[in-house]
Amino acid sequence: MESFDNGGLNVGSLRAFNLSLMCKWLWCFLGQTSAIWANVVKAIHVEFGGLDGSKLTCSGIWSNIINAFNKAKQDGSLPSNVIRAKVGDGKSIRFWLYNWRGDGMLKNKYRRLYHLETDKNCSLADRKENGVWSWSWNRNDIGDRNRSLLNELMLNIGSISLSNNSDSWGWVLDNDTAFTVADTRTYIDTCLLPSVNPFTRWVKCVPRKINILLWRVALDKFPTRLNLSRRCLEIQQIGCVSCNYCVETLKHVLFDCNIAADLLRRTRMWVDVDLPIFSEWAEWIAWFDDWRERMDVKDKLYTIVAALIWHIWTYRNSVIFRPPMKKLLLFDSICFTSFSWYSSRGKSNVTWNEWLIKPL
Ligand SMILES: [Zn+2]
After folding, report:
1. Distance 256 CA to ligand 1 centre (A)
2. Which pLDDT does position 235 carry in this prediction?
3. How far is the CA of 31 from the centre of ligand 1 (A)?
4. 178: nearest Cα among 75, 93, 47, 86
5. 283 CA to middle of ligand 1, Å?
6. Neighbours of 330 (CB within 10 A)
7. DSSP for 222-283?
8. How far is the CA of 182 from the centre of ligand 1 (A)?
9. Distance, CA 312 to ligand 1 centroid (Å)?
10. CA–centroid distance, residue 280 to ligand 1 (Å)
11. Distance between CA atoms of 259 and 240, rounded to whole angstroms?
């Protein structure tokens, strides 16, 4: 389910998708202030719909959405200050109650000053008139400690200047942008889902399904008989279907079994590269990554090995599920399949004769 960057297949989790769709309602609530449904929410709940952290006393769908949103912020699935007011003329931004600085509401940061405020719902424009800060405290002398806090607050917000544009909203994930379900879903999945190691290799020369197949090889997530029995499936026998001599592990099927070893030997002679004897996928990848060659040559070899692995596994399945493929034709099929993949996806042109005689 993880994203490509985290080594997965970028499928995404339903939980993140569901939460993102709920967040879309919040975003619409902020943008559609005059819509009937938004006014109904405001009439039932508090004016800001609970987005400022105020507690909703009435249960229902909106309350459930707000609770899910708050929970996501608490467990780190979403940034705590994901909703940010963008300052324009400052008329619709509640000075103390909106996150317009990007670091949370001022009422939480300067609680003592907030208690001294006479108009708790005052706007930013109310507090900054004609470029000058103007305050309204509920007593004349706010005391030295509060004056010190006020100086700190003014240092914090001193750079803010109002414009003639209307205020707007931002959805701040990694950067300050407008809300999208896709971005939000990706962000939540990145927080919730563990990264996968080893990563998926998306090599363009081979089909997508083969890249996924090789990724499953790297993770040892293949449905070999041993792996199936480990998952408590009733398997009559766990021996290799080709040789019936060893336990059918992934390592045995793809590298150790007679037919795999024979195909690998013939492939090594065909590509004319001094390939070491690999006993598992990780060894091949380590060797391949260290192999100093031109990129197109590396792409060709990777394509051939991918075709080799795919054919070994397809042959194994054919033995179990349908009349087995002819062993004698396997190597020819590897040559043709790898040519077909590379010639249709690779960057350099190659003819069938060239591929047969000297593929790399
Ligand atoms: Zn075998």
Report:
1. 7
2. 81
3. 64
4. 86
5. 20
6. 19
7. ---HHHHHHTT---S--B-TTTSSSB--HHIIIIISHHHHHHHHHHHHHHT------SSHHH
8. 46
9. 11
10. 15
11. 11
Q: In this predicted model, what pLDDT tens digit does every residue of 281-314 receive, in sequence order? A: 899 999 999 999 999 999 999 999 999 999 999 9
Q: How far does residue 241's CA lie from ligand 1's centre (Å)?
A: 6
The amino acid present at 197, given as its one-letter code, is N
Q: Is 60 exposed, middle or buried (0-12, 13-18, 19+ CB in 10 A)?
A: exposed
Label residue 266 by pLDDT band (50, 70, 90): very high
d(CA 252, CA 63): 56
pLDDT of 339: 95
Separation of 332 CA from ligand 1 center, angstroms? Answer: 21
- Two tokens, residue 113: 């000053």
How many of the other CB atoms lie within 10 Å of CB of 12? 19
Q: Measure CA of the first residue to CA of the last residue in the chain; give whole Å.
A: 36
Whether 23 and 179 have beta carbons less than 8 Å apart is answered as yes
Q: What is the pTM of this model?
A: 0.64
What spacing in Å lies between the alpha carbon of 316 and ligand 1's midpoint? Answer: 9
- Cα of 258 vs centre of ligand 1, distance in Å, is 6
Among 327, 262, 47, smallest CA distance to 56 is for 47
Under the banding of pLDDT at 50, 70 and 90, the label for residue 18 is very high
Residue 294 C-alpha to ligand 1 middle, in angstroms? Answer: 35
Under DSSP, the state recorded for 4 is: G
- Rounded to the nearest whole angstrom, what is the distance from the C-alpha of residue 249 to the centroid of ligand 1? 9
Cα(112) to centroid(ligand 1), Å: 76
Task: Give 54 or 262, the one with higher predicted confidence.
Answer: 262
In the structure, how many helices (H) and strands (E) does the chain have? Answer: 16, 5
